[in-house]
Each structure stands twice: as C-alpha cells, then as structure tokens.
C-alpha cells in the first residue's frame, strides 16, 4: 500500500478552486489531462528517456503539480527503483494520481503530499529529480518556486520543467457552409485565451539560471495523436467545453454559434459526427541541473 500523506504548510486544504489563470480544477480537468496523455503522450516517453540520460538512477523523484498522475505513472514506470512523491495543492488530483498508480500496479512506488507550491516547500525527502509539467506557470511566483525546487534537490539533482507550447488543436481546415474555416476559428479562440493568459509562460531558461541552475538541455516535442476517433472526440469535447465557459464576453456571436454547433449532441457539424478531428500539440522541456 502507498502511504498517503496529506500536508499543507499553512494548515489549509484546497479543493477544486479556480487558480489564478481561470482554469477550474475538477473532474473535467483531470479527465482532460488523462486523455491528453493517452493521445499526445509521446512527450512522456521522450522526456522520461531524456531524464534517464541525464540522471540514470534517481532515488527520490518529486512530481510537482501531479494532476491526474500521468507524469507520476510515466516516471514510476521508467525508474523502477525510484520512489515518486506526487505533490499537488488539490486533494482531488492526488486521489486521481493514486488511482492511476494503482491501475498501473505502481502503488508501492508512489506517495502523495498535499502542499501548495505558493507556500514554503513541504518537508519531504531531498529529491534527485523534480518534474514540473504544466504546473510552473500556474504558481503565483514561479521564480520563487524555482528557488524552492533548487533547495529541495540534492547536489547534482535535476529539475525538468515541461510546458505546452500552445493549447492543443483539434479542428481541421474544413470550411463550413458560411465560409468559416474551423482551424481558423480555433486559432481565434486560442488567441483570445492567450489574452486571458491561459498557459501563459516565458522561456524558462533565464529564470532557471537566476535560480542557480545550469540549463543542460532544452528540447521541443511535437505530437500528432493517432488515437481512435472516439477518444479524439472525447478530448475535443472536454477541451472545447472548458474553452466555451470562458468565451461568453470574448468571442464574436458568429464564432460562439459555431462553437455551440460543434458541442451540440448531434447535427452534421457536431464533434460527435465529425470524422476530421486530429489532435495536435507540442511541448518544450527544460532540463536544469543543480551544480
Ligand atoms: C495543468 S495541471 C498539470 C498536471 C500534470 N503535471 C500533467 O502534466 O498532466 C497543473 C497541476 O498543478 C497543480 N497546481 C497548480 N498550482 C499549484 C500550487 N500552487 N501548488 C501545488 N500544485 C499546484 C494543479 O492542482 C494541477 O493539478
């Protein structure tokens, strides 16, 4: 059995609150993260292979902001002799991480810690590898958190920061009867979300160096999902439904009407009927060594 440790540094627990970027944490986000890994998860293989090259035998790995646990599982599978501490401010997410570990027969390798990275670094074992995937841009002061991660690593330890280069894309270049190209509509929606700082992050290299790290690798991985149409359709629906909740005062009435027709349960334009969905995404990893 994994030991489950619940910890906050200020004694408060957070459940399903919106973060400062306006993304809500809940079952929808967790399912979205898991679908993303199923469909676009080649980056998990590539980035954990890079981790093996750079730190072959880590004893303790911390997955900082573990979400639904896709990174925790990939790390535990890649590093069979390591112990993975999954850290998140959401108890729901940690529950999902433990469930994912259990489904993959990895329970004995995984411990969860409920902690807010905006508070002081939790009292956990010093790590040989810290993995922060799509989480650093969510904390209030990323440079402060990088400093805490630096202190939380053993000398020679590695921090791997991973971010999506943009939001995942689903729609094709198909043109609707009114002349709207779906991929162009998707690009307009993403541009509006970028204005709202969704997935907002800089190139982390300079910040990592200011925190004392040597950035030893920076790689980008592009993925085109080759999942079943059903999975692609589920992920597209989950993601576009999340986008829709943010779009009311932002998108034009015409774009909103198309988005609604995509999200309708049936109809020729609905996601359920489409055969042209193709999930695409790309991520960058920064691998930074503590001297
Ligand atoms: C977008 S998800 C990414 C999850 C996972 N790493 C992945 O790549 O699928 C970001 C996760 O970071 C967590 N998170 C955000 N801010 C945090 C903070 N201040 N302290 C701890 N966890 C945080 C969220 O609860 C969420 O589970």
UniProtKB/TrEMBL annotation:
GO terms for molecular function: methyltransferase activity. SUPFAM superfamilies: S-adenosyl-L-methionine-dependent methyltransferases (SSF53335). Residues 1-27 are annotated as: Disordered. The keyword Phosphoprotein does not apply. Residues 60-172 form the Methyltransferase domain. GO terms for biological process: methylation. It comes from the Bacteria. Keywords: Methyltransferase, Transferase. Pfam families: Methyltransf_31. PANTHER family: METHYLTRANSFERASE TYPE 11, S-ADENOSYLMETHIONINE-DEPENDENT METHYLTRANSFERASE RV2258C. This is SAM-dependent methyltransferase. It comes from Arthrobacter glacialis.
């Amino acid at each position: 059995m994994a030991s489950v440790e619940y910890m906050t540094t200020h004694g408060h627990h957070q459940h399903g609150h919106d973060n400062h970027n306006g993304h809500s944490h809940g079952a929808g986000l967790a399912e979205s993260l898991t679908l993303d890994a199923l469909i676009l998860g080649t980056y998990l293989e590539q980035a954990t292979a890079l981790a093996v090259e750079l730190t072959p035998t880590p004893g303790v790995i911390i997955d900082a902001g573990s979400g639904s646990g896709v990174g925790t599982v990939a790390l535990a599978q890649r590093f069979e002799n390591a112990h993975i501490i999954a850290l998140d401010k959401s108890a729901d997410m940690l529950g999902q991480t433990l469930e994912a570990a259990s489904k993959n027969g990895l329970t004995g390798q995984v411990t969860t810690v409920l902690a807010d990275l905006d508070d002081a670094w939790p009292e956990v074992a010093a790590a040989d590898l810290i993995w922060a995937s799509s989480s650093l841009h969510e904390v209030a002061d990323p440079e402060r958190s990088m400093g805490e991660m630096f202190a939380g690593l053993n000398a020679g330890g590695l921090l791997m920061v991973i971010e999506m280069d943009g939001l995942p894309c689903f729609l094709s270049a198909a043109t609707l009867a009114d002349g709207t190209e779906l991929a162009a509509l998707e690009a307009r929606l993403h541009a509006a979300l970028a204005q709202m700082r969704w997935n907002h992050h800089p190139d982390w290299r300079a910040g990592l160096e200011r925190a004392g790290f040597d950035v030893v690798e920076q790689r980008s991985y592009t993925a085109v999902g080759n999942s079943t149409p059903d999975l692609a359709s589920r992920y597209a629906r989950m993601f576009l439904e999340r986008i829709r909740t943010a779009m009311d005062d932002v998108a034009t009435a015409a774009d909103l009407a198309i988005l609604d027709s995509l999200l309708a349960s049936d109809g020729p334009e609905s996601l359920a009927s489409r055969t042209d969905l193709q999930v695409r995404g790309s991520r960058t990893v920064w691998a930074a060594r503590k001297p």
